[in-house]
Amino acid sequence: MAKFVIAGRADCPYYAKAELLADYLQKNLPDFRIHKITQHPEVWEEWLKDVCESNKWSHKNSPIIWRELLDRGGKGLLLGGYNEFLEHAQLYYGVTSSMTTELMMVIAQENLRAHIEKEQEKEALKDLINPLQVWITSASAPACYNLIPILTSGEVFGMHTEISITLFDNKRAEERLEALVIETRELASPVLRRVSICTKVEEAFRQAHVVIVLDDSTDQEVHSLEECLRSRVPLCRLYGYLLEKNAHDSVRVIVGGKTFVNLKTVLLMRYAPSIAHNIIAVALGVEGEAKALLARKLKTTPAYIKDVIIWGNISGNNYVDLRKTRVYRYESAIWGPVQYSRPVLNLIFDSDWIKRESVAILRNLTATGKQFGGILAAHSISTTLKYWYHGSPPGEIVSLGVLSEGQFGIPEGIVFSMPVKFESGTWVVLTDLKDVEISEKIMTRMTSDLIQEKLVALGDVINFQPYKSGNLLDAEHPKQWATNGLE
Questions:
Q1: What domains are there in the chain, each with its CATH number?
Q2: Where is the Lactate/malate dehydrogenase C-terminal domain (predicted)?
Protein backbone atom coordinates (compact mmCIF):
# COMPACT_ATOMS: atom_id res chain seq x y z
CA MET A 1 0.00 0.00 0.00
CA ALA A 2 1.22 3.48 -0.87
CA LYS A 3 0.51 6.22 1.70
CA PHE A 4 1.38 9.81 0.82
CA VAL A 5 1.38 12.83 3.13
CA ILE A 6 0.49 16.16 1.53
CA ALA A 7 1.23 19.20 3.70
CA GLY A 8 0.92 22.82 2.69
CA ARG A 9 0.06 26.38 3.52
CA ALA A 10 -3.72 26.56 3.91
CA ASP A 11 -4.07 29.28 1.25
CA CYS A 12 -1.58 27.76 -1.23
CA PRO A 13 -3.12 27.15 -4.72
CA TYR A 14 -0.56 24.44 -5.50
CA TYR A 15 -1.53 22.60 -2.34
CA ALA A 16 -5.13 22.77 -3.59
CA LYS A 17 -4.06 21.33 -6.95
CA ALA A 18 -2.03 18.53 -5.30
CA GLU A 19 -4.95 17.78 -2.96
CA LEU A 20 -7.38 17.37 -5.89
CA LEU A 21 -4.99 15.05 -7.71
CA ALA A 22 -4.43 12.99 -4.56
CA ASP A 23 -8.19 12.73 -3.93
CA TYR A 24 -8.65 11.37 -7.46
CA LEU A 25 -5.89 8.77 -7.01
CA GLN A 26 -7.26 7.62 -3.64
CA LYS A 27 -10.76 7.26 -5.09
CA ASN A 28 -9.65 5.23 -8.12
CA LEU A 29 -6.74 3.19 -6.78
CA PRO A 30 -7.43 0.54 -4.11
CA ASP A 31 -3.94 0.68 -2.55
CA PHE A 32 -3.40 4.45 -2.58
CA ARG A 33 -3.93 6.43 0.63
CA ILE A 34 -3.33 10.08 1.51
CA HIS A 35 -3.02 12.12 4.69
CA LYS A 36 -3.52 15.89 4.49
CA ILE A 37 -1.94 18.53 6.71
CA THR A 38 -2.66 22.25 6.44
CA GLN A 39 -0.96 25.02 8.38
CA HIS A 40 -1.95 28.65 8.80
CA PRO A 41 0.14 30.97 6.58
CA GLU A 42 1.60 32.66 9.67
CA VAL A 43 3.10 29.43 11.04
CA TRP A 44 3.80 27.57 7.81
CA GLU A 45 7.48 28.47 7.39
CA GLU A 46 8.36 27.58 10.98
CA TRP A 47 6.43 24.30 10.75
CA LEU A 48 8.13 23.37 7.46
CA LYS A 49 11.55 24.17 8.92
CA ASP A 50 10.91 21.89 11.92
CA VAL A 51 9.71 19.00 9.71
CA CYS A 52 12.71 19.27 7.40
CA GLU A 53 15.19 19.49 10.28
CA SER A 54 13.73 16.45 12.05
CA ASN A 55 13.78 14.37 8.84
CA LYS A 56 16.99 15.90 7.39
CA TRP A 57 15.16 17.04 4.27
CA SER A 58 15.73 20.10 2.11
CA HIS A 59 12.50 21.76 0.95
CA LYS A 60 11.43 25.41 1.01
CA ASN A 61 8.02 25.78 -0.68
CA SER A 62 4.40 24.76 -0.27
CA PRO A 63 3.32 22.02 -0.59
CA ILE A 64 5.69 19.37 0.70
CA ILE A 65 4.84 15.76 -0.17
CA TRP A 66 6.41 12.56 1.08
CA ARG A 67 5.70 8.87 1.05
CA GLU A 68 5.48 6.97 4.33
CA LEU A 69 7.31 3.66 4.24
CA LEU A 70 4.68 1.60 6.05
CA ASP A 71 6.12 -1.72 5.05
CA ARG A 72 9.69 -0.91 6.05
CA GLY A 73 9.39 1.70 8.77
CA GLY A 74 11.68 4.73 8.79
CA LYS A 75 11.19 8.46 8.48
CA GLY A 76 9.55 8.45 5.06
CA LEU A 77 10.74 9.26 1.54
CA LEU A 78 10.57 12.89 0.41
CA LEU A 79 8.93 13.26 -2.98
CA GLY A 80 9.09 17.05 -3.26
CA GLY A 81 6.50 19.63 -4.21
CA TYR A 82 3.52 19.71 -6.57
CA ASN A 83 5.58 19.22 -9.75
CA GLU A 84 7.32 16.12 -8.40
CA PHE A 85 3.98 14.69 -7.24
CA LEU A 86 2.44 15.31 -10.68
CA GLU A 87 5.40 13.58 -12.39
CA HIS A 88 5.03 10.62 -10.02
CA ALA A 89 1.30 10.32 -10.80
CA GLN A 90 1.93 10.47 -14.55
CA LEU A 91 4.80 7.97 -14.44
CA TYR A 92 3.30 5.33 -12.13
CA TYR A 93 -0.47 5.78 -12.60
CA GLY A 94 -0.87 7.56 -15.95
CA VAL A 95 -2.89 10.34 -14.30
CA THR A 96 -2.49 14.09 -14.80
CA SER A 97 -4.22 17.26 -13.54
CA SER A 98 -5.99 19.91 -15.59
CA MET A 99 -7.14 22.32 -12.86
CA THR A 100 -7.32 25.95 -14.01
CA THR A 101 -5.51 28.72 -12.18
CA GLU A 102 -8.81 30.39 -11.28
CA LEU A 103 -10.15 27.20 -9.69
CA MET A 104 -6.87 26.72 -7.83
CA MET A 105 -7.26 30.16 -6.22
CA VAL A 106 -10.91 29.55 -5.26
CA ILE A 107 -10.13 26.21 -3.63
CA ALA A 108 -7.10 27.71 -1.84
CA GLN A 109 -9.31 30.32 -0.16
CA GLU A 110 -11.85 27.65 0.77
CA ASN A 111 -9.04 25.61 2.31
CA LEU A 112 -7.93 28.60 4.39
CA ARG A 113 -11.45 29.20 5.70
CA ALA A 114 -11.87 25.52 6.48
CA HIS A 115 -8.52 25.45 8.29
CA ILE A 116 -9.43 28.46 10.46
CA GLU A 117 -12.81 26.96 11.34
CA LYS A 118 -11.16 23.65 12.24
CA GLU A 119 -8.65 25.37 14.51
CA GLN A 120 -11.44 27.30 16.23
CA GLU A 121 -13.32 24.07 16.84
CA LYS A 122 -10.17 22.53 18.33
CA GLU A 123 -9.77 25.46 20.71
CA ALA A 124 -13.42 25.20 21.78
CA LEU A 125 -13.03 21.48 22.43
CA LYS A 126 -9.79 22.12 24.31
CA ASP A 127 -11.64 24.51 26.64
CA LEU A 128 -14.17 21.77 27.33
CA ILE A 129 -11.47 19.16 27.92
CA ASN A 130 -9.14 21.34 30.00
CA PRO A 131 -10.83 22.89 33.04
CA LEU A 132 -10.13 26.42 34.27
CA GLN A 133 -7.18 26.15 36.67
CA VAL A 134 -7.94 28.10 39.86
CA TRP A 135 -5.23 28.44 42.53
CA ILE A 136 -5.89 29.76 46.05
CA THR A 137 -2.90 30.85 48.14
CA SER A 138 -2.87 30.60 51.96
CA ALA A 139 -5.68 28.13 51.50
CA SER A 140 -5.86 27.32 55.21
CA ALA A 141 -7.25 30.83 55.83
CA PRO A 142 -10.93 31.06 56.87
CA ALA A 143 -11.81 33.00 53.71
CA CYS A 144 -10.92 29.97 51.57
CA TYR A 145 -13.43 27.80 53.44
CA ASN A 146 -16.18 30.25 52.54
CA LEU A 147 -14.88 30.86 49.02
CA ILE A 148 -14.91 27.28 47.73
CA PRO A 149 -18.71 26.74 47.82
CA ILE A 150 -19.21 29.95 45.81
CA LEU A 151 -16.58 29.03 43.20
CA THR A 152 -18.06 25.54 42.77
CA SER A 153 -21.65 26.79 42.51
CA GLY A 154 -21.18 27.81 38.87
CA GLU A 155 -22.19 31.41 39.60
CA VAL A 156 -18.69 32.86 39.17
CA PHE A 157 -17.36 31.36 35.94
CA GLY A 158 -20.61 29.95 34.57
CA MET A 159 -22.32 26.57 34.65
CA HIS A 160 -20.65 25.57 31.37
CA THR A 161 -17.10 26.16 32.64
CA GLU A 162 -15.50 23.32 34.56
CA ILE A 163 -12.86 24.30 37.11
CA SER A 164 -9.93 22.62 38.84
CA ILE A 165 -9.05 24.07 42.26
CA THR A 166 -5.58 23.81 43.77
CA LEU A 167 -5.15 24.73 47.44
CA PHE A 168 -1.67 26.17 47.98
CA ASP A 169 -0.16 26.56 51.43
CA ASN A 170 2.83 25.49 53.51
CA LYS A 171 3.50 21.94 54.66
CA ARG A 172 2.23 22.65 58.19
CA ALA A 173 -1.27 23.25 56.84
CA GLU A 174 -1.43 19.98 54.88
CA GLU A 175 -3.72 18.15 57.32
CA ARG A 176 -6.20 21.02 57.32
CA LEU A 177 -6.08 21.20 53.52
CA GLU A 178 -6.76 17.47 53.20
CA ALA A 179 -9.90 17.88 55.30
CA LEU A 180 -10.94 20.78 53.08
CA VAL A 181 -10.41 18.65 49.95
CA ILE A 182 -12.71 15.95 51.34
CA GLU A 183 -15.45 18.48 52.11
CA THR A 184 -15.08 20.06 48.69
CA ARG A 185 -15.49 16.74 46.92
CA GLU A 186 -18.59 16.02 48.98
CA LEU A 187 -20.23 19.08 47.45
CA ALA A 188 -20.61 16.97 44.27
CA SER A 189 -20.45 20.15 42.20
CA PRO A 190 -21.19 19.65 38.48
CA VAL A 191 -18.54 22.25 37.54
CA LEU A 192 -15.74 20.93 39.76
CA ARG A 193 -13.45 18.61 37.81
CA ARG A 194 -10.73 18.27 40.43
CA VAL A 195 -9.53 19.64 43.78
CA SER A 196 -5.97 19.09 44.96
CA ILE A 197 -3.28 20.30 47.36
CA CYS A 198 0.09 21.88 46.61
CA THR A 199 2.71 22.43 49.32
CA LYS A 200 5.77 22.45 47.05
CA VAL A 201 6.76 26.02 46.25
CA GLU A 202 8.42 25.19 42.93
CA GLU A 203 5.16 23.71 41.60
CA ALA A 204 2.95 26.66 42.53
CA PHE A 205 0.67 28.20 39.89
CA ARG A 206 1.40 25.62 37.18
CA GLN A 207 -0.83 26.51 34.18
CA ALA A 208 -2.95 28.70 36.46
CA HIS A 209 -5.71 30.70 34.78
CA VAL A 210 -6.87 32.36 38.03
CA VAL A 211 -4.83 32.99 41.18
CA ILE A 212 -6.57 34.22 44.34
CA VAL A 213 -4.11 35.70 46.85
CA LEU A 214 -5.34 35.63 50.45
CA ASP A 215 -3.58 36.94 53.56
CA ASP A 216 -0.55 34.78 54.32
CA SER A 217 -0.29 33.26 57.76
CA THR A 218 3.17 33.66 59.24
CA ASP A 219 4.86 32.79 62.52
CA GLN A 220 7.44 35.50 62.02
CA GLU A 221 7.36 38.04 64.83
CA VAL A 222 7.47 41.69 63.82
CA HIS A 223 8.07 44.56 66.22
CA SER A 224 7.30 47.60 64.08
CA LEU A 225 5.22 48.82 61.16
CA GLU A 226 8.37 49.05 59.05
CA GLU A 227 9.23 45.38 59.69
CA CYS A 228 5.67 44.43 58.85
CA LEU A 229 5.82 46.29 55.54
CA ARG A 230 9.18 44.79 54.58
CA SER A 231 8.03 41.31 55.51
CA ARG A 232 5.59 41.41 52.56
CA VAL A 233 8.36 41.72 49.98
CA PRO A 234 9.91 38.20 50.03
CA LEU A 235 6.60 36.41 49.54
CA CYS A 236 5.43 38.80 46.80
CA ARG A 237 8.81 38.43 45.07
CA LEU A 238 8.47 34.65 45.23
CA TYR A 239 4.86 34.72 43.97
CA GLY A 240 5.84 37.08 41.16
CA TYR A 241 8.65 34.77 40.03
CA LEU A 242 6.38 31.71 40.14
CA LEU A 243 3.60 33.48 38.26
CA GLU A 244 6.00 34.49 35.51
CA LYS A 245 7.51 31.00 35.36
CA ASN A 246 4.54 28.65 35.82
CA ALA A 247 1.22 30.39 35.22
CA HIS A 248 -0.74 30.63 31.99
CA ASP A 249 0.12 33.67 29.87
CA SER A 250 -3.35 35.16 30.42
CA VAL A 251 -3.51 34.42 34.17
CA ARG A 252 -5.73 36.71 36.23
CA VAL A 253 -4.53 37.52 39.75
CA ILE A 254 -6.92 38.90 42.35
CA VAL A 255 -5.57 40.10 45.71
CA GLY A 256 -7.79 40.02 48.79
CA GLY A 257 -7.30 40.06 52.54
CA LYS A 258 -7.44 42.56 55.38
CA THR A 259 -3.83 43.78 55.58
CA PHE A 260 -1.78 45.84 53.10
CA VAL A 261 -3.90 44.84 50.10
CA ASN A 262 -2.73 47.75 47.93
CA LEU A 263 0.92 47.16 48.84
CA LYS A 264 0.80 43.42 48.07
CA THR A 265 -0.83 44.17 44.72
CA VAL A 266 1.77 46.72 43.63
CA LEU A 267 4.60 44.39 44.75
CA LEU A 268 3.16 41.52 42.70
CA MET A 269 3.00 43.85 39.71
CA ARG A 270 6.65 44.76 40.27
CA TYR A 271 7.83 41.15 40.40
CA ALA A 272 5.52 39.80 37.68
CA PRO A 273 5.75 42.62 35.10
CA SER A 274 4.50 40.62 32.11
CA ILE A 275 1.09 40.08 33.75
CA ALA A 276 0.90 43.33 35.76
CA HIS A 277 -2.12 44.44 33.72
CA ASN A 278 -3.99 41.38 35.00
CA ILE A 279 -3.42 41.92 38.73
CA ILE A 280 -6.13 43.70 40.74
CA ALA A 281 -7.08 44.33 44.37
CA VAL A 282 -10.54 43.64 45.81
CA ALA A 283 -12.34 46.69 47.20
CA LEU A 284 -15.88 45.30 47.36
CA GLY A 285 -15.44 44.33 51.02
CA VAL A 286 -15.20 47.96 52.10
CA GLU A 287 -17.98 48.85 49.68
CA GLY A 288 -20.26 46.13 51.07
CA GLU A 289 -19.63 47.16 54.68
CA ALA A 290 -20.47 50.78 53.83
CA LYS A 291 -23.69 49.72 52.08
CA ALA A 292 -24.72 47.63 55.09
CA LEU A 293 -24.12 50.56 57.43
CA LEU A 294 -26.17 52.88 55.21
CA ALA A 295 -28.95 50.31 54.93
CA ARG A 296 -29.22 50.07 58.72
CA LYS A 297 -29.48 53.83 58.95
CA LEU A 298 -32.14 54.02 56.21
CA LYS A 299 -33.92 50.83 57.35
CA THR A 300 -33.62 49.24 53.93
CA THR A 301 -31.74 46.36 52.27
CA PRO A 302 -28.00 46.74 51.43
CA ALA A 303 -28.59 45.30 47.94
CA TYR A 304 -30.84 48.29 47.15
CA ILE A 305 -27.93 50.71 47.63
CA LYS A 306 -25.75 51.24 44.54
CA ASP A 307 -22.73 53.25 43.41
CA VAL A 308 -20.75 53.66 46.61
CA ILE A 309 -17.22 54.64 45.57
CA ILE A 310 -14.20 53.58 47.62
CA TRP A 311 -11.13 55.72 47.04
CA GLY A 312 -7.58 55.02 48.19
CA ASN A 313 -6.09 52.37 50.43
CA ILE A 314 -8.47 49.40 50.65
CA SER A 315 -7.11 48.17 53.99
CA GLY A 316 -5.95 51.54 55.30
CA ASN A 317 -6.79 55.20 54.81
CA ASN A 318 -9.63 55.27 52.32
CA TYR A 319 -12.48 57.59 51.46
CA VAL A 320 -16.10 56.46 51.07
CA ASP A 321 -17.76 58.72 48.51
CA LEU A 322 -21.57 58.94 48.54
CA ARG A 323 -22.02 61.67 45.95
CA LYS A 324 -23.09 59.13 43.29
CA THR A 325 -24.78 56.72 45.71
CA ARG A 326 -28.46 55.97 45.14
CA VAL A 327 -31.03 53.80 46.88
CA TYR A 328 -33.69 51.80 45.03
CA ARG A 329 -37.11 50.58 46.24
CA TYR A 330 -36.99 52.96 49.18
CA GLU A 331 -40.25 53.24 51.09
CA SER A 332 -41.14 56.90 51.46
CA ALA A 333 -43.71 59.44 50.38
CA ILE A 334 -42.18 59.39 46.92
CA TRP A 335 -42.57 56.04 45.15
CA GLY A 336 -41.75 54.80 41.66
CA PRO A 337 -41.09 51.73 39.51
CA VAL A 338 -38.28 49.23 40.22
CA GLN A 339 -35.71 51.28 38.29
CA TYR A 340 -36.54 54.46 40.22
CA SER A 341 -33.88 55.59 42.69
CA ARG A 342 -33.05 58.51 44.94
CA PRO A 343 -29.72 60.01 46.06
CA VAL A 344 -28.72 58.68 49.47
CA LEU A 345 -27.46 62.06 50.65
CA ASN A 346 -30.95 63.50 50.13
CA LEU A 347 -32.38 60.95 52.55
CA ILE A 348 -29.89 61.20 55.44
CA PHE A 349 -30.45 64.50 57.23
CA ASP A 350 -28.23 63.70 60.21
CA SER A 351 -24.95 65.26 59.11
CA ASP A 352 -23.36 64.49 62.48
CA TRP A 353 -23.97 60.76 61.84
CA ILE A 354 -22.28 60.96 58.45
CA LYS A 355 -19.31 62.95 59.71
CA ARG A 356 -18.64 61.25 63.05
CA GLU A 357 -20.70 58.27 64.16
CA SER A 358 -20.50 56.30 60.92
CA VAL A 359 -16.76 57.01 60.68
CA ALA A 360 -16.21 55.69 64.21
CA ILE A 361 -18.21 52.52 63.49
CA LEU A 362 -16.23 51.69 60.38
CA ARG A 363 -12.94 52.54 62.04
CA ASN A 364 -13.75 50.17 64.90
CA LEU A 365 -14.59 47.38 62.46
CA THR A 366 -11.28 47.88 60.70
CA ALA A 367 -9.32 47.93 63.95
CA THR A 368 -10.86 44.69 65.20
CA GLY A 369 -10.53 42.91 61.84
CA LYS A 370 -14.26 42.21 61.65
CA GLN A 371 -14.59 44.16 58.42
CA PHE A 372 -12.92 41.42 56.41
CA GLY A 373 -14.29 38.25 57.95
CA GLY A 374 -14.29 35.03 55.98
CA ILE A 375 -17.79 35.38 54.53
CA LEU A 376 -17.37 38.99 53.40
CA ALA A 377 -13.88 38.34 51.97
CA ALA A 378 -15.09 35.30 50.02
CA HIS A 379 -18.14 37.10 48.65
CA SER A 380 -16.10 40.16 47.65
CA ILE A 381 -13.51 38.06 45.81
CA SER A 382 -16.05 35.87 44.03
CA THR A 383 -18.20 38.84 42.98
CA THR A 384 -15.18 40.67 41.59
CA LEU A 385 -14.18 37.55 39.66
CA LYS A 386 -17.73 37.17 38.32
CA TYR A 387 -17.68 40.77 37.09
CA TRP A 388 -14.23 40.25 35.56
CA TYR A 389 -15.42 37.29 33.49
CA HIS A 390 -19.00 38.33 32.72
CA GLY A 391 -19.15 42.11 33.18
CA SER A 392 -20.54 44.26 35.99
CA PRO A 393 -24.22 45.30 36.05
CA PRO A 394 -24.85 47.88 33.30
CA GLY A 395 -24.62 51.44 34.53
CA GLU A 396 -23.37 50.43 37.99
CA ILE A 397 -20.16 51.81 39.53
CA VAL A 398 -17.76 49.24 41.02
CA SER A 399 -14.75 50.01 43.23
CA LEU A 400 -11.48 48.27 42.36
CA GLY A 401 -7.82 48.58 43.31
CA VAL A 402 -5.80 49.13 40.12
CA LEU A 403 -2.46 50.66 39.18
CA SER A 404 -2.79 54.40 38.82
CA GLU A 405 -1.92 55.95 35.49
CA GLY A 406 -2.61 59.48 36.68
CA GLN A 407 -6.43 59.36 36.61
CA PHE A 408 -8.22 61.84 38.89
CA GLY A 409 -4.85 63.42 39.73
CA ILE A 410 -3.65 60.28 41.55
CA PRO A 411 0.16 59.83 41.39
CA GLU A 412 1.30 57.13 39.00
CA GLY A 413 2.83 53.88 40.19
CA ILE A 414 0.64 53.14 43.21
CA VAL A 415 -2.34 50.80 43.47
CA PHE A 416 -5.37 52.92 44.32
CA SER A 417 -9.04 52.03 44.70
CA MET A 418 -11.16 53.97 42.22
CA PRO A 419 -14.46 53.67 40.29
CA VAL A 420 -14.52 51.24 37.35
CA LYS A 421 -16.85 49.14 35.26
CA PHE A 422 -16.15 45.62 34.01
CA GLU A 423 -16.81 44.72 30.39
CA SER A 424 -15.45 42.32 27.74
CA GLY A 425 -13.19 40.50 30.18
CA THR A 426 -11.44 43.60 31.51
CA TRP A 427 -12.19 46.83 33.38
CA VAL A 428 -12.35 50.48 32.47
CA VAL A 429 -11.68 53.31 34.92
CA LEU A 430 -14.66 55.70 34.89
CA THR A 431 -12.71 58.88 34.26
CA ASP A 432 -15.78 60.54 32.72
CA LEU A 433 -17.68 60.71 36.04
CA LYS A 434 -18.68 64.25 36.90
CA ASP A 435 -18.45 65.91 40.33
CA VAL A 436 -16.13 63.34 41.90
CA GLU A 437 -13.18 65.61 42.54
CA ILE A 438 -11.48 64.98 45.89
CA SER A 439 -9.97 67.77 47.95
CA GLU A 440 -6.21 68.06 47.80
CA LYS A 441 -5.92 67.49 51.56
CA ILE A 442 -7.75 64.15 51.48
CA MET A 443 -6.00 62.99 48.32
CA THR A 444 -2.60 63.86 49.80
CA ARG A 445 -3.39 61.87 52.94
CA MET A 446 -4.34 58.73 50.99
CA THR A 447 -1.57 58.87 48.41
CA SER A 448 1.11 59.86 50.93
CA ASP A 449 0.55 56.76 53.04
CA LEU A 450 0.48 54.45 49.98
CA ILE A 451 3.70 55.94 48.64
CA GLN A 452 5.32 55.63 52.08
CA GLU A 453 4.27 51.96 52.36
CA LYS A 454 5.87 51.16 49.01
CA LEU A 455 9.10 53.04 49.73
CA VAL A 456 9.53 51.49 53.19
CA ALA A 457 8.75 47.98 51.92
CA LEU A 458 11.38 48.27 49.16
CA GLY A 459 13.97 49.75 51.53
CA ASP A 460 14.13 53.16 49.87
CA VAL A 461 12.99 54.81 53.13
CA ILE A 462 13.90 53.59 56.62
CA ASN A 463 11.02 54.93 58.71
CA PHE A 464 7.35 55.28 57.86
CA GLN A 465 6.21 58.88 58.22
CA PRO A 466 2.40 59.02 58.32
CA TYR A 467 0.73 62.08 56.91
CA LYS A 468 -0.43 64.42 59.66
CA SER A 469 -3.21 66.94 59.29
CA GLY A 470 -6.24 68.28 61.06
CA ASN A 471 -9.82 67.67 60.03
CA LEU A 472 -9.81 65.80 56.72
CA LEU A 473 -13.43 66.41 55.82
CA ASP A 474 -13.47 68.63 52.77
CA ALA A 475 -15.22 71.86 53.72
CA GLU A 476 -16.32 72.31 50.12
CA HIS A 477 -18.07 68.91 50.11
CA PRO A 478 -19.30 68.34 53.69
CA LYS A 479 -21.46 65.38 52.67
CA GLN A 480 -18.60 63.26 51.41
CA TRP A 481 -18.02 60.30 53.71
CA ALA A 482 -14.59 59.60 55.12
CA THR A 483 -13.56 56.48 57.02
CA ASN A 484 -10.66 54.28 58.10
CA GLY A 485 -8.54 56.98 59.65
CA LEU A 486 -10.00 60.00 57.80
CA GLU A 487 -11.51 62.37 60.32
A1: 2-126 (3.40.30.10), 127-275 (3.40.50.720), 284-483 (3.90.110.10)
A2: 290-450
